[in-house]
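TL;DR need structure tokens for one chain.
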Amino acid sequence: MTLPLTVVGSGVAGLYTALCAARAGLDVALVTKGELLSGATPYAQGGIAAVLRGPDSVRLHIQDTLKAGAGTNTPEAVAALCTEAAEHIAELVRLGVDFDPEPGLEGGHSARRVLHVNGDATGAGIAVALTAAVRAEPKIGIREHTFATDIVLARGRVAGLQVQDPDGVLSILPVTALVLATGGAGELYAQSTNPASATGDGVALAAGAGAALADLEFFQFHPTALDVPGHPLVSEAVRGEGAVLRDVAGIRFLVSVTFAAGAGADTGLVAGSGSDTGSVVGAGANTGSVVGSGTDAGAELSGRDVVARGIALHLQETGAHNVFLDATGLRDRHGPGYLARRFPGLDALTAAHGFDWEREPVPVVPAAHYWMGGISTDLAGRTSVPGLYAVGENACTGVHGANRLASNSLLEALVFGARTAAAVRAGVPWPEAEAEAEADAEAETGAQQSGPPQPGALMPGTVGRQASVPQASVPQASAPQASVLQSLAAQGPAGPEGGGYAVVTRDRLQALMSGSAGVLRNTDGLAAAARQLASWLPPAGSSVAERETANLLTCARLLVGAALQRHASLGAHYRTDSPHIPARRERTDVRV
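>> reply
TL;DR here they are.
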């Protein structure tokens, strides 16, 4: 049976899209490779940004989002995100999400507008409520532990989804409309705040179907992941309350941030002479951090790309392995036990790793956190492939630009998940595709199909005629970019210089991407990474882990290819050999 809508992914984007569509009367199939609560959403500590009261305003939220994105955001997408936030927060409350009474402050925000659940468990609180609602919705059929392997096309349109069940058996689900909501690709890097399931599945699926992709070079690194195995993040809200960053000598090294003229784009961090030297950071040491009202933390509350870059540059200069997040001053200001009351999850986390963060700074490092780039969509979630939609982190609506503003990701999943469900329910067409289909039908009157659609080779570049959505947010690839990306991804590995091929392993892939395409990049490193990626073959097996690694290899080739094409620094893409931001800033868009 062909259902009106199939959703792949069970984070907040997939859950909310499915729920909105079902409540609009559609029968929905929800496919997830794990369990409903196994994605990245439960990991989201920081919160969800929304303007609910004055003196804050939607206009200020829009301005902050554009500034964080270095002026490369799609303005219409940003306006939709910020304007429609309140109605979706109200819906979450109706579903049982119990937000804390007072909003918090996070980096890049000009006002306290970040909503939390139980201090630092926002993602989990939202995921639990949405999961319960989805499980209770009779119009949603759930297929857990089912891995999406290929998108099936018929005459340039989505016609099916090939999936692998827990026993390894492949089958094809007939599809009318398909939403990809598989999340990000943090597993590209050795240090990541994402779960191990964040393997770029949606982007790889869309690339295989020939969908247009955008902004692939922009990968955000969270500045403060706890430097322990697994690298759990320490919420930006901790710095919003006044915690500061220090190096091993106790110096507060992020002392000032300068901004380029135009769009408020960050040029980087500049060390000054006014450093707060504090005391030496050591086990059990109280550094006496300078903590004010939550807004005087200065550089620590700059955009994530700026803070992560500042840390990375400082580590490169000093040779240190990590820096330290110092929240000890909050005890002096609020009294003993404040951190445990305000951030109960983080208090338990730090204690489990042997730290008393009320009395000593904790070691942190930047870690891969969020991919701003992805499957290019319009404001209705439509991609360049008729019948294919994308929502959440695997999508690129243009709302984040070159760097995502803190706590806008959960909000984007809600706003554009609801918009996508509404578009599917209304049957919003792909205008150019419909016109071409009518012309084809006239030319082929009487022709019979040779049989049901089958998966093609589904390697990037092998899909036939496609039609693009005629919106500015789903542009065509430029010829140079298409050429580079096709050589890296679409045409497969070109082989190493003077050598043979090797099967990629995840550890080697992560080491390569962390060293050459992480927070700091340059032409030589990216070019070497491109050559190495071209020499690797995907695993030949069909286990979920092997398929995930193959997807990561596709994503790595695409990201590095896009990074090579952007020669100047911008947002989360920082080139040490070209650190200055150009006056002209454009998005990168490509079809493979």
